[in-house]
Amino acid sequence: MAIYAAALSQHPVPVEAVGECAGQLLEALGGARPDLVVAFASPHHTGAFTDIVASLHSLLSPGVLTGSTAIAIAGGGLEVEEEPALSVWAASWGGGHARAFRLEAQPDSDGTRIIGWPDDLPPLGTLMLLADPFSFPVPELLELCNRSAPGLTIVGGNASAARGPGGNRLALDSSVFTHGAIAVLLDASVPVWTAVSQGCRPIGQPFTVTASDRNFILELAGQPAVNRLQQVAAAMPGEDRELLRGGLHVGIVLDEHKIDFSRGDFLVRNLIGADPERGALAVAERIEVGQTVQFHVRDAQSATDDLRAVAGRALHGDRHARSALLFTCNGRGAQLFGTPNHDAGLIQDLVHGGLPLAGMFCAGEIGPVSGRAFLHSFTASLAVFGDEIVLEPE
Predict the structure, then answer these.
(1) Neighbouring residues of 369: CB distance < 8 A, sequence distance ≥ 6
(2) Within this chain, do residues 312 and 207 fall inside the same structural domain, yes or no?
(3) Which terminal residue of the chain, N or C, has fewer Cβ atoms less than 10 Å from its own Cβ?
(4) Whole-angstrom distance, CA of residue 116 vs CA of residue 385
(5) For residues 336 and 330, what is the distance between their CA atoms, to the nearest angstrom?
(6) Same-domain pairing of 106 and 193
(7) What global pTM score does this model have?
(8) How many CB atoms lie within 10 A of CB 106?
(9) Co-location of 286 and 307 in the same domain
(10) What is the pLDDT of residues 91-117, one digit of tens each?
């Protein structure tokens, strides 16, 4: 039986915060040694993060310790924004189910070389990735994984405590780094699954891309893309048209074999501009002729409905959810929803009695859509952990 624990401290003094979290975790673990400990610290603790990590490693003696600094921190049903916070999560699966490695990016003649990527990745399992967005090319790594290890499920996020290079902190065991990425590989026996809420809802109808140029959609179903957008906007109710001012998005269908498309079938990307002369729309993703796309809008209610649906399926499916790690966007929180504790609180409300949860606000969230790993924005990506270790037959 797996054992999970989580603790949150809002004490402003780092040593006190470590003591509070470690004490709660040791009591909850009941003497079991954790296979994995994950620590998230607010910017207030950046200067002391090395001491925090070393103390947690000494007190908890985990098989693997990882973590990151972030602009805001989640723990239990709380999201702590603009105040000191340390959130620590621990899991015990009986030993030997997690291993970690540090990754660095180095330019070379072919583009970017990933240093530290192991040659012996298993065909199945879960990879949790924490990265510094200023020094590590997460999209390139995800493309590598999608090609070379398609059976791996990847979840995580970018550190968000700093606005420039060198300001974030990443932990691996008792060491702390200011660049690169930390990857934790959980073998296929660990009961973990993911849920990704992109926080949008579709409007209008799907269209086939009939002409494109890199990330520009030139035509949708034989008409200039701008014209199609104008037609969709004209048919929208007045209250929905107001949402267009807050930003419009394009959902790209990833599995073209489906006949009908619904939540989870789209990779949502920002609409970043238009070229009126060509009647083209620019999207933050390369677009190919033949792909199916649909316009999407995002607002607080759409994001709430989407998270409730996506997380509800993950927490109430045929697997028993026992714990969770939350990687949510730093553009969500109180500034989007108008009230605190939205994502973490909603997840706890979906589970009778709550569950051990820790998390961070990210500068880019990692999670799968239609079986492929992507870096997202304005998304809540959830790793849900269950009961039983799946043992290989002897």
Answers:
(1) 196, 198, 254, 264, 266, 267
(2) no
(3) C
(4) 27
(5) 10
(6) yes
(7) 0.93
(8) 8
(9) no
(10) 999 988 999 999 999 888 777 889 999
